[in-house]
Amino acid sequence: MNFTKFDLQKELTYKASRSSGKGGQNVNKVATKVELLFNLQQSALFNDEDKIWLSGKLQNMLNRGGLIHLTNEESRSQLTNKELALDKLYSILAQAIQRPKIRKAIKVSKHAKAKRLEQKRLHSVKKQLRKNDY
User: Which of 36, 49, 71, 116 is 20 to 30 A from 84, comparing alpha carbons?
Assistant: First the structure.
């Protein structure tokens, strides 16, 4: 992974609005809901190859403009909601950037092949002994 939360935070845009969640009278006065916008294509954190990879992995999360749009209104605090949204984006990107490990094809050893065939032969013999020949 070649990016940190601090690097990521430099490229984010935040919008705040009134939350529909808990908070009593506070809900009507303070903008605690946080919307986080991240432009993947204009990011300096990723090279072109990574951007193509991430676009494919996160295609369901990208809007028409190529932005990742997350909202958070879990907390009564705007700052806490910003931190939670940033953590969520970081975990999404960190998980999506991981490339699958390339499987190396190996040859089955002679011993393993012989052991498997012997087990098959013994199983066959066991079934042959069960037969009733009248």
Answer: 49
